[in-house]
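User: I'm curious whether this sequence folds into something compact or stays loose and floppy. Could you predict its structure so I can see for myself?
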Amino acid sequence: MRKILLILMLSFCVSAFTQELNCNVVINAEQTGNPNLPVFKTLEKQIREFVNNTKWTNKEFTNKERIECSIYINITEYASDVFNGTIQVQSSRPVYGSSYTTPVHNLNDKDFSFRYLEFQNMVYNPNQFESNLISVLAFHVYMVIGIDADTFSLKGGDTYFNQAQVILNYSQGENTKGWKLSDGTQNRYALIDNMLSPTFEDYRTVMYNYHRNGLDLMSQDQKEAKSNIADAIISLEKMNRVRPNSYILRTFFDAKADEIQDIFSAGPNVEITKLVSALGNIAPMYSSQWRNIKY
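Assistant: Here's the prediction. I'll summarize afterward.
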């Protein structure tokens, strides 16, 4: 009987705690002209297993706590073992007291090139460059985990953003784009630089207030929740005046524009004159959504 109980307890421990991500991975190779090559399916399967089965943090995640995310890789060129394309990373998190999941992160990384031989081992080393494929995937994983943590506790993502910075630093010595200041203003360098810069410190406070004091309050007090969300968004205007058109704000509204429109187009009325004005100043590219917000 003791042995049976021990086996059951061990089985429970194994099933109760799991890795951090529940990530769907899709590779599209239509633009290569040979989308049905087995190497693309093998790569897709290996990336899915790598991202979902690697232990990325020291925290214990239950199955219900796993972060829902997706990675969509569009291969535009392929020759021998060299791949070129883009990688889009999205994540979401549940909202307290509801069945709704809110989009948290939506980023399209256009500088994605790597070497890969079919069935090669994919192993992450936190302190050493292994390949650009591993570095890019690990960098985006830590961004997803860090941003998710920021929505639950104020600046809760520090540890994960710092690891993303480590990956950036040891990957800069390689001859691949996206890791350096000279590579442009919308890349991995810009993303982590914005996230850790004191100039954008308010952004992370907004992420916390928008989610914990806003969306998570919806099931208890919709009017107060909406007011808190509006205040959080309005507070981004000051940051935008200092650094207009920043990459980090672009990623925020890429994830949140439709949701913001929906929140302020239904439910109890709140004062939104300042909100609509702020949205127009901060994210004019989404003006069509802002026009649908009801006064």
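Summary: The two ends are 67 Å apart (CA to CA). The longest helix spans residues 132-152.
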